[in-house]
Amino acid sequence: AKSVVIAPNNPLTLTDAIAQAGGIIEGGRRDKIEIYRRNADGTMSKRTVDMTKGEQAFQPVQDGDWVFVPF
Question: Strand, coil or helix: what is 6?
Fold first, then answer.
């Protein structure tokens, strides 16, 4: 796992974040990427993203998000 720094005035897309972290290794499930985000009330939410569908690959990530690419 590798951390990626998100600059305050430079939004980062999911594609950018994964690229900066070194990319998806062989066998990584591009269709089942999980994004975990802490909500204002302290709970965590999870979204599953299919990067094989173009528009989903370009959604923004936020400071504190965790991105997990399963095998």
Answer: coil
Query: How many Cα atoms occupy the beta-carbon half-sphere of 21 within 13 Å?
Result: 20
Output the average pLDDT for the chain. Answer: 90
Mention every residue, 6+ apart, whose C-beta is less than 8 A from residue 71: 27, 28, 29
How many angstroms separate the CA atoms of 49 and 44, rounded?
Answer: 16
| Helices marked H in the chain | 14-20, 54-57
Question: In this structure, what are the phi and psi dihedrals at residue 9, rounded to the nearest 5 degrees?
Answer: -105, 20
Longest dimension (CA), the chain: 37
As a whole number, mean pLDDT of residues 44-57 equals: 91
Q: Please state, in angstroms and rounded to a whole number, the distance separating the CA atoms of residues 46 and 32.
A: 12
Average pLDDT over residues 28-46: 96
